[in-house]
Design a protein that fits this description.
Chain A is mainly alpha-helical. Helix content of chain A is 86%, strand content 0%. Chain A is built from 7 helices and no strands. Chain A has helices at 7-19, 24-36, 38-69, 71-81, 87-99, 101-126, 133-173. The longest helix of chain A has 41 residues, at 133-173. The radius of gyration of chain A is 43 Å and the shape is rod-shaped. The mean pLDDT of chain A is 83. By secondary structure, chain B is mostly helical. Helices cover 62% and strands 0% of the residues of chain B. In chain B, helix 3 (25-46) runs antiparallel to helix 4 (53-67) and helix 5 (77-95) runs parallel beside helix 8. The N and C termini of chain B lie far apart (48 Å). The chains are: A mainly alpha, B mainly alpha. The A-B interface holds A 71, 74-75, 77-79, 82, 84, 109-110, 112-128, 130-137, 139-141 and B 25, 28-30, 32-33, 36-38, 40-41, 44-45, 54, 57-58, 61-62, 65-66, 120, 122, 125, 127-129, 131-132, 134, 136-137, 140-141, 158-160, 164-165, 180-181, 183-185, 187-188, 190-191, 194, 197-198.
Chain lengths: 174, 198
């Protein structure tokens, strides 16, 4: 028995047909039906269009996930803003940021973040109210004086020792 | 005397370094004055709290003053200074019985050709006006202090001191690849913590 499918039957099979997960015989039957039925054909076309859009979005989401999970790319983006990439990698990153919105957003965020860090650092620097320079120089000069004094003391001690040894020899032999 | 001071104030860091090496104490004083805020701020982010900040800042400045004559190449002053800052911090960690990192005490200038940029690296744009409140600064400091040591030091030397990856590798006794990875991972962690501020 080779009965044609009804519209209700086609409607029930529409998801399977559009996703390709349908028995081959039933696919033929659906195709036969939609070749004659304008309304069912339109439904199939609409669903196909929706699913195609969903696939594209899914792809972008997957790509974004890949970007955020891809340490190598993140590391290269980071090195790019530090101007630490070799020329070849530099060009690759430039191309990626032109074509990939997510990569571009990451890069913009990094630049913003860099400026934020600079602001914070400048604020921290301004928190220092003490001037250590005079204290450091004064300490240095004092310790240099001590060093000199000890040095001369050692020289004198050493000289006295040498003289004592020489005098001792002279006394012993003469 | 006042004219003399003004003279030193107009000199570049390199000039001050060379004069300091010739035992010009006025030049050395001006040099210390010039670098002290940077040393203070850098240590402020390296340390987990402000407890020993003043002592360590003075310790670094004194080491610079005492050892300025040992600096073979004045062009490497920035890298040499950051080497002292980082080593002082590591010594402090060792003394506090935290996890020690062994760092070479010798500093070899990676390249004699590069130009030293002592100033904050990004001269093209003014710092963001939107967030320089104390609260914001504290949040950023807290976020940076929460990073693991290796990441924290790498990101500080890069963002605040503008050192190249090679210089940072030299200072932290690691490879350029490791430095690149640490900086990237530090940025990812910080973005996560500070997303409300960007």
């Amino acid at each position: 028995m080779n009965k044609s499918l009804t519209c209700s039957q086609v409607l029930a099979l529409i998801n399977s047909y559009v996703t390709g997960n349908i028995n081959s015989k039933l696919r033929e039957d659906v195709e036969k039906h939609i070749s004659k039925c304008h309304s069912c054909r339109k439904k199939v076309e609409d669903l196909t269009r929706i699913l195609l859009k969903f696939d594209n979005i899914n792809e972008e989401v997957v790509k974004e996930e890949q970007l955020s999970l891809n340490p190598k790319l993140m590391s290269n983006l980071s090195a790019y803003i530090d101007n630490e990439l070799p020329a070849e990698e530099n060009i690759k990153i430039k191309k990626i940021t032109i074509s990939n919105q997510t990569a571009r957003k990451h890069l913009e965020k990094m630049y913003q973040f860099h400026k934020l860090m600079q602001s914070a650092y400048a604020k921290t620097k301004s928190n220092l109210k003490t001037d250590y320079s005079k204290g450091v120089i004064s300490y240095l000069q004092k310790s240099e004086n001590y060093t000199t004094v000890y040095f001369y003391r050692l020289i004198i001690l050493f000289s006295v020792l040498i003289v004592a040894i020489v005098v001792g020899f002279i006394y012993l032999y003469f | 005397m006042a004219n003399n001071r003004l003279l030193y104030k107009k000199m570049s860091i390199e000039e001050l370094v060379v004069l300091s090496q010739g035992e010009d104490f006025n030049a050395l004083e001006e040099l210390i004055r010039r670098i002290q805020k940077d040393v203070f701020a850098t240590l402020s982010y390296m340390l987990k709290s402000a407890d020993n900040l003043s002592d360590l800042t003075q310790e670094v400045l004194l080491k610079v003053a005492k050892n300025i004559s040992n600096l073979q190449n004045p062009a490497c002053f920035s890298g040499w200074l950051n080497h002292i800052v980082t080593n002082t911090y590591y010594d402090y960690l060792r003394k506090s019985k935290n996890k020690p990192d062994i760092v070479s005490l010798e500093y070899s200038c990676p390249s004699l050709d590069f130009e030293i940029n002592i100033d904050i690296p990004d001269k093209r744009s003014k710092p963001m006006e939107k967030c320089i409140t104390s609260e914001c600064e504290q949040q950023i400091k807290k976020a940076i202090r929460s990073l693991p040591d290796a990441f924290r030091i790498a990101i500080i030397l890069r963002e605040f001191q503008g050192l190249s990856y090679e210089q940072i590798a030299n200072t932290t006794n690691s490879s350029i690849g490791t430095v690149k990875s640490r900086i990237s991972r530090a940025r990812v962690k910080l973005h996560d913590v500070l997303k409300n501020y960007t």
